[in-house]
Amino acid sequence: MKSDLFKKVFKIVSRIPKGKTLTYKEVAEKAGKPKAYRAVGNILHKNYDKKIPCHRVVRSDGKPGGYNRGEKRKLEILKKEKAN
Length: 84
Description:
By secondary structure, the chain is mainly alpha-helical. It has helices at about 5-15, 25-30, 35-45, 70-80; strands at about 20-25, 55-60.
């Protein structure tokens, strides 16, 4: 069974519009767990559902962060979407 945080993270991330990004910290804050940004990263790293655009979640320092299909692919997708 998936945790409440898991469900909240996927719900928040699924609503990030094309061309926009949120940081792991912003997702954690929106989920009501402001210090759980590492947990957010771990949750998203296990996502293989294309309906959950986890590539739109980036690090607070502006770097792309991890992606289960590779950082290079994450950057390609973000560039194609003209993400901020």
